C-alpha cells in the first residue's frame, strides 16, 4: 500500500471513530447547554446501550428481526436511564446545591452505573453479536470496510437531524430558550422541567446510537468501556465549543482524526521520541491548550461573567 | 472573652496533649503486639489518606475549586521519591534509612509542588467544571507519560523498562515517622487555613469577583493553594511509594483521585477535622467489609448521591472539631459563649462573602 493510500485510509479511520465521538459529544453539549452540568455519566450511557444491544440482538434474531433493530430497545433503555438519572439525582441536587455538588453527583452517578453493571454482568469483556454486514468498498487500492461507512453515514445523518430538530421544531426552540434563560422561559409558558427531561432523553438516546456505531467496529462490551470514550467525547465537545451542536460535530471529527493520525505518524515524525502510546496524552494536551487559548471552544460563544 | 475559658496558650497545650495521647495510643497498639503487619499497614494507609484528604480539602473545600488530578501529583512525588531513593542506594551513599526516607519524600514533594505551580498557573484561569476537567486531563497525561518513561518502569533508573510497574523500592517508611509527618502536615494546613491567607482564600471561594475587587491577588492565592496541595500530595506519594515497595502508573488516573474527592466530600468541604475523620473511616471501612468488596464502590456511589441531595456540605460541613472548645464546653459550661461565639462570628463573616468582612473578622479570629 502506498503512503498516500495509507494516509487516506487513516483519514477514514479517524472519521469513523470521530463520528462516534461527535455523537457522544452531542449528548454532552445538549445537556451542558441546558443545565450547565457536565454529565460525567454520559459515557456510561453508551455502556448501557451496548449491553442492551448485546442482550437484545439474540432476542430479536429469535423473532426473525434483523440485528440492527436492536438499536430501538437500546435507545429506549438509554433514554429511560437518562431520564431516571436526571429525575432521581440531578434534579434534587440542582435545586439545593451548587455547581460543585452537581458535578460530584454526576461523578457518583458514573461510578454507580459502572459498578452496577459490573455487579450484574461481571468485569470482563463480552462479545456483541454482528450487527451489520456491509461488504468492503474498494476504490483502487483503497479499502473502506462496512463499519466505517455505517459509522460515518449514521453520524452525519444524526447530526443533521439534531441540528434541524433544535433549530426548526417547537421543542427545539423551547430547548434553546431554556438554555438561554430559565426564568424567562418559565414566564413564556415553557415547561422547563419537561424540556430538561426531554433533552436528557434525547441526549441519552443518542448515546445508544453511538453505542451501535461503536459496537459495529469494536464488538465487545465491558462496564468501563464508556469511561475513556466519554472522556474523549467530552474533549471533543469542549474543543468544538460546549453548547454548540455543529461544534460537537466538528470537535468529534477533529479528535477522531487527530487520534488516528497521531497513532499512525507521531512515531515517525518525532523520530520515536513520542510513540503512539502517547495518543491519549496528546488528546488531553489538545484539550488543555484549547481551554487556555479559547475556553469557549472553536464554535462556542464566549461567556462573560456578571456580578 | 470570658476569663473562665481556656487561654490561647492553654488551648495549644491541650492540643499538644491530645496529639501525644494519640501517639501513645498508637505506640501501645504497635508495641503491645496487638497489631500485626496487616493492622500496621492499615494505620499507614490511614496516615497517607489523611495527608491526601486534608491537603485536597484545602483546594476543594477552602478554595472551592474541584480538582480531579490530585493522584497525578501524588504519583509525581511517589516516583520522584522512589527513584531518588534507588539512586542513593545505587551510588552507594551511606545514609540512615530514616534520613533517606525524609530526604526523598521531601524532594518528591518539592517536585510535585513545582508541577503544581506549572499546572496551576494556566489551569486556575478557569474555574468550576473546566478546572475539574483540566486537572483530570493533567492527571491522565501524567499517567500516560509515566507509562512511557523507561526509567520509571521495572527495576527503575537505567535498567528500567517502559510500561511496567516500578518495583524493588526500599520499604523504609516507618509508622511512627509517618505519624509525625501526618501531624505536622495537618498542623501546617490548619495554620494556613486560619491565617490571613486562609481567610483571603475563603473570601475567594465565597465570591471571587468581590474578593478581587477588594484588592486580593486572586491568581496568586489560587496558585499558592494549588501548590501547597500538590506539595502535600507529593509528600503522601513519597510515603506511599516507600511503604508499598512498588508503583503503577494507573494509580495516577482520575478514578483514584475521585476516591479522595469522595473522602473530602463525606468529611465536609472546608472542614479539615472532617477530612481526617472521613479519611480514617473510609480507609478502615473497606478493610472491615472485605467480604462485600464487589459492592463497595456501588454503595459508595449511592451514599454519595444521597449525601449530595440531603447534606451537600458533608458530615461536618465547615465545622471543625476542637479539643479546647470541647473542654471549655464541659469544664466551664460556656461552649456557646466566649470562644465559640467568636469562632461563629469569624465563620459567619467568612461566609458572608466580602473580603472586607473577612478582614474585619481577623481580631475576632485571634480572640478565638
TrEMBL record, chain A:
Biological process according to GO: D-alanine transmembrane transport; L-alanine transport; L-isoleucine import across plasma membrane
Keyword Cell membrane: yes
Main localisation: membrane
Ranges annotated as spanning the membrane: 20-38, 45-64, 70-90, 102-121, 146-166, 186-214, 234-258, 265-293
Keywords in alphabetical order: Amino-acid transport, Cell inner membrane, Cell membrane, Membrane, Transmembrane, Transmembrane helix, Transport
UniProt cross-references to InterPro entries, sorted A to Z: ABC_transp_permease (IPR001851), BCAA_transport_permease (IPR052157)
Cellular compartments per GO CC: plasma membrane
Pfam families from the UniProt entry: BPD_transp_2
Presence of the UniProt keyword Membrane in the record: yes
Domain of life: Bacteria
Topology term for the membrane: Multi-pass membrane protein
GO molecular function per UniProt: L-isoleucine transmembrane transporter activity; L-leucine transmembrane transporter activity; L-phenylalanine transmembrane transporter activity; L-valine transmembrane transporter activity
Compartments where found: Cell membrane
CDD domains (alphabetical): TM_PBP1_LivH_like
Family statement drawn from the similarity comment of this UniProt entry: Belongs to the binding-protein-dependent transport system permease family. LivHM subfamily.
PANTHER family the record matches: BRANCHED-CHAIN AMINO ACID TRANSPORT SYSTEM PERMEASE PROTEIN LIVH, HIGH-AFFINITY BRANCHED-CHAIN AMINO ACID TRANSPORT SYSTEM PERMEASE PROTEIN LIVH
Protein name per Swiss-Prot or TrEMBL: Branched-chain amino acid ABC transporter permease
Organism: Bifidobacterium boum
From TrEMBL, chain B:
UniProt-listed Pfam families: BPD_transp_2 (PF02653)
Organism: Bifidobacterium boum
PANTHER family according to UniProt: HIGH-AFFINITY BRANCHED-CHAIN AMINO ACID TRANSPORT PROTEIN BRAE (PTHR30482:SF10), HIGH-AFFINITY BRANCHED-CHAIN AMINO ACID TRANSPORT SYSTEM PERMEASE (PTHR30482)
Listed transmembrane segments: 12-29, 41-64, 101-124, 172-193, 220-240, 260-285, 297-316
Locations listed in the record: Cell membrane
Keyword annotations: Cell membrane, Membrane, Transmembrane, Transmembrane helix
InterPro entries, sorted: ABC_transp_permease, LivM-like
Region feature (Disordered): 347-368
Entries under CDD domains matching the protein: TM_PBP1_LivM_like
Keyword rRNA-binding set for record: no
Name of the protein in question: Branched-chain amino acid ABC transporter permease
Example of a GO cellular component annotation carried by this entry: plasma membrane
GO molecular function: branched-chain amino acid transmembrane transporter activity
Domain of life: Bacteria
Membrane topology: Multi-pass membrane protein
Amino acid at each position: 500500500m502506498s503512503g498516500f493510500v495509507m494516509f487516506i485510509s487513516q483519514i477514514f479511520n479517524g472519521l469513523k471513530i470521530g463520528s462516534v465521538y461527535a455523537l457522544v459529544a452531542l449528548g454532552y453539549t445538549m445537556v451542558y447547554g441546558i443545565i450547565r452540568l457536565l454529565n460525567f455519566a454520559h459515557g456510561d450511557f453508551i455502556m448501557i446501550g451496548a449491553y442492551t444491544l448485546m442482550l437484545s440482538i439474540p432476542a430479536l434474531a429469535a423473532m426473525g428481526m434483523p440485528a440492527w433493530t436492536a438499536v430501538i430497545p437500546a435507545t429506549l433503555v438509554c433514554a429511560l436511564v437518562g431520564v431516571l438519572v436526571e429525575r432521581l439525582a440531578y434534579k434534587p441536587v440542582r435545586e439545593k446545591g451548587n455547581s460543585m455538588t452537581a458535578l460530584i453527583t454526576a461523578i457518583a452517578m458514573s461510578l454507580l452505573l459502572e459498578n452496577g453493571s459490573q455487579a450484574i454482568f461481571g468485569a470482563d469483556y463480552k462479545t456483541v453479536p454482528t450487527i451489520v454486514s456491509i461488504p468492503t468498498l474498494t476504490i483502487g487500492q483503497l479499502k473502506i470496510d462496512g463499519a466505517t461507512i455505517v459509522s460515518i453515514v449514521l453520524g452525519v445523518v444524526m447530526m443533521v437531524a439534531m441540528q434541524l430538530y433544535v433549530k426548526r421544531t417547537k421543542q427545539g426552540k423551547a430547548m434553546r430558550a431554556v438554555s438561554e434563560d430559565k426564568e424567562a422561559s418559565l414566564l413564556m409558558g415553557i415547561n422547563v422541567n419537561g424540556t430538561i427531561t426531554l433533552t436528557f432523553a434525547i441526549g441519552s438516546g443518542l448515546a445508544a446510537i453511538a453505542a451501535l456505531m461503536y459496537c459495529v467496529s469494536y464488538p465487545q462490551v465491558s462496564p468501563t468501556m464508556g469511561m475513556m470514550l466519554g472522556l474523549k467525547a467530552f474533549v471533543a465537545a469542549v474543543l468544538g465549543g460546549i453548547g454548540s451542536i455543529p461544534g460537537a460535530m466538528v470537535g468529534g471529527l477533529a479528535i477522531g482524526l487527530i487520534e488516528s493520525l497521531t497513532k499512525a505518524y507521531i512515531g515517525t515524525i518525532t523520530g520515536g521520541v513520542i510513540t503512539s502510546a502517547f495518543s491519549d496524552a496528546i488528546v488531553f494536551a489538545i484539550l488543555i491548550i484549547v481551554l487556555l487559548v479559547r475556553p469557549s471552544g472553536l464554535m462556542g460563544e464566549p461567556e462573560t461573567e456578571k456580578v | 472573652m470570658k476569663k473562665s475559658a481556656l487561654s490561647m496558650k492553654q488551648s495549644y497545650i491541650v492540643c499538644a496533649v491530645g496529639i501525644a495521647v494519640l501517639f501513645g495510643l498508637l505506640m501501645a497498639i504497635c508495641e503491645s503486639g496487638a497489631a500485626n503487619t496487616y493492622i500496621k499497614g492499615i494505620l499507614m494507609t490511614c496516615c497517607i489518606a489523611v495527608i491526601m484528604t486534608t491537603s485536597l480539602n484545602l483546594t476543594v473545600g477552602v478554595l472551592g475549586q474541584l480538582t480531579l488530578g490530585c493522584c497525578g501529583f501524588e504519583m509525581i512525588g511517589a516516583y520522584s521519591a522512589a527513584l531518588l531513593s534507588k539512586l542513593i542506594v545505587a551510588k552507594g551513599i551511606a545514609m540512615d534509612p530514616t534520613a533517606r526516607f525524609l530526604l526523598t519524600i521531601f524532594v518528591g514533594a518539592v517536585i510535585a509542588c513545582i508541577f503544581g505551580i506549572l499546572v496551576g498557573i494556566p489551569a486556575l484561569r478557569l474555574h468550576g467544571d473546566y478546572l475539574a476537567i483540566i486537572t483530570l486531563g493533567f492527571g491522565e497525561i501524567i499517567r500516560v507519560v509515566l507509562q512511557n518513561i523507561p526509567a520509571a518502569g521495572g527495576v527503575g533508573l537505567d535498567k528500567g523498562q517502559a510500561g511496567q510497574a516500578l518495583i524493588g523500592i526500599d520499604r523504609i517508611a516507618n509508622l511512627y515517622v509517618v505519624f509525625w509527618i501526618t501531624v505536622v502536615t495537618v498542623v501546617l494546613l490548619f495554620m494556613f487555613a486560619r491565617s490571613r491567607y486562609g481567610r483571603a482564600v475563603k473570601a475567594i471561594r465565597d465570591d471571587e469577583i468581590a474578593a478581587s475587587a477588594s484588592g486580593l491577588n486572586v491568581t496568586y492565592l489560587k496558585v499558592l493553594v494549588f501548590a501547597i496541595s500538590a506539595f502535600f500530595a507529593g509528600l503522601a506519594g513519597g510515603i506511599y511509594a516507600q511503604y508499598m515497595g512498588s508503583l503503577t502508573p494507573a494509580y495516577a488516573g482520575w478514578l483514584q483521585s475521585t476516591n479522595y474527592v469522595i473522602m473530602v466530600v463525606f468529611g465536609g468541604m472546608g472542614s479539615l477535622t472532617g477530612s481526617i475523620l472521613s479519611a480514617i473511616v473510609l480507609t478502615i471501612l473497606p478493610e472491615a467489609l472485605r467480604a462485600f468488596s464487589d459492592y463497595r464502590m456501588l454503595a459508595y456511589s449511592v451514599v454519595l448521591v444521597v449525601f449530595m441531595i440531603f447534606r451537600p456540605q458533608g458530615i461536618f460541613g465547615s465545622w471543625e472539631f476542637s479539643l479546647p472548645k470541647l473542654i471549655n464546653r464541659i469544664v466551664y459550661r460556656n461552649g456557646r459563649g466566649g470562644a465559640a461565639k467568636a469562632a461563629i462570628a469569624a465563620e459567619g463573616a467568612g461566609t458572608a462573602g466580602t473580603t472586607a468582612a473577612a478582614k474585619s473578622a481577623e481580631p475576632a479570629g485571634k480572640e478565638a
